[in-house]
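Risk register update: the risk that structure generation would not scale has been downgraded. Supporting records follow, first protein first.
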Amino acid sequence: MTTKRIGQIKEQQACAFLQKKGLQLVQANYHCHWGEIDLIMEDRSCTVFVEVRFRKTQDYGSAEATVSSRKQKKLIMAAQCYLSDKSHFDDIECRFDVVGISGSEGKEQMIWIKNAFGVDQIHD
């Protein structure tokens, strides 16, 4: 199985997990000039941009810890692209969540970090 296919499966698992928690899928795999947002979901009136990360083992750190400040900046810029298409841009409450999946098939562990980072938390 290719890395891309594994990523698609993990994103689907994360989406199903979040839907069970009450979030609704708006769009998967949003692409723009700045990159990709794995999942865009709604949590009541809040737009949630979700980054999904997978690691088979935690030998070199957890899956969720791999979202670097550089990646966070790209996600924020991609979210701004997405939001700029919305007519009510200023009225949208949003947050950035990370779902980390680790372990081998059947023994996977999923960690959901709500509000994992924000625009004001990014440093150069």
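Supporting record for the second protein:
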Amino acid sequence: MSRCRWVVFGVLAIGYILVYFHRLCTAVVANDMMRDLEAGATLAGFLAAAYFYPYALMQIPAGLLADSWGPRKTISLFLVIAAGGSVLLGAAQGPSLAIAGRTLVGAGVAMLFVATLKVLTRWFTAREFPAMASALIVVGGVGSLSATAPFAWLSEWLGWRASFVSIGLATIAVAAAVWLFVRDTPADAGLPPIADAPGEAAPPAGVLAAVVTVLRRPAFWPLAVWFFFDLAVFFSFAGLWGGPYLEHVYGIDKAHAGRVLAMYAIGMIVGAPLWSFAQTRIGMRHKPLLVVSSACLMGITAVWAFYTGTLPLEAQYGMCLGLGVFSNAIAGIVFAATKELFPTAIAGTALGLVNFFPFMGGAVFQPVLGAVLEPYEVAKGVFSAEGYQRAFLVLLACSAAALLAALCMQERGRKA
């Protein structure tokens, strides 16, 4: 049992590395893509955001397919779809096909997170599950790290097109590994069930009624709004415009920018266990953790907005580290807070719905920042420090909205 469940987790963890890689990899090759595809800043924003729209929209179907068809089949099939999208992106000769490829990638990897959580509930005890969920966020940090300096080096060696084709082939290999080594339950592997694994609990009034119940709960909305605006900051910078900003304003090359951006991934890897420790060991509640995190993120975006071209390059390492710690790393706390608001029968529906909002935030604000930057183009695909300052002011407003949402959050046990 012990060996088998760690094999299951390990294979799914490799898949989750690809989820985060595909999510954020466009930042270090954004300039190359804009040049080769002859795309402006707004179009580049839509190209990067094409991952997020299908990812967000597929969250509820992901849960339904994992329940009805099974996680193993769902993950394997949709990873193949993501692989095809990555190959199409690498082969695209124009923005339309590139956007189509990026859309297929987003739709394909969208199925992994919810299905993986479902598998973990069957292979690990209720006491072990929070630690495994935190471990999954750390794995996401490894995926984020792979999308920075390592991908910059790979694209320097192979070119961005061949790099995406290679990643597509690697994604097919992971899909095959999921099919061969992952089983939905211990019983599928000929093993006894985990003693205290939670039983399957379907919403008593049906899926639609569960969705309505979640959306009508006032306490749900501060968490959803927080996710939308807070992760909009992270995905806009880490997933697209951070690389061009560092290259255009500081004049560094792609590999150097990748090393700076790698710090947000390290922030995720370090931050997720720290937030989990603060909650489970120190006993801090969700709301103060989110308020502190949001206030720190607002400080980071304020420094970017008001010291856009004057901040030393060395300071950007710390800024990116803070972005990882105070934004994406704390996402597990929001999932825990959401789960506490609802009975077990509809907790999965609530988690799927709240997971819709961070990706919509990225989908909306990546092209918005591109539109803000376009009037400040000083050369083909190159934007001025003043343009990036205007873009960072938008992110400052997003972080302020996230802080306000955190202040409006209601803890379990209070009237909602």
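The chain has 20 helices and two strands. On this basis the risk owner (M.S.) recommends closing the item.
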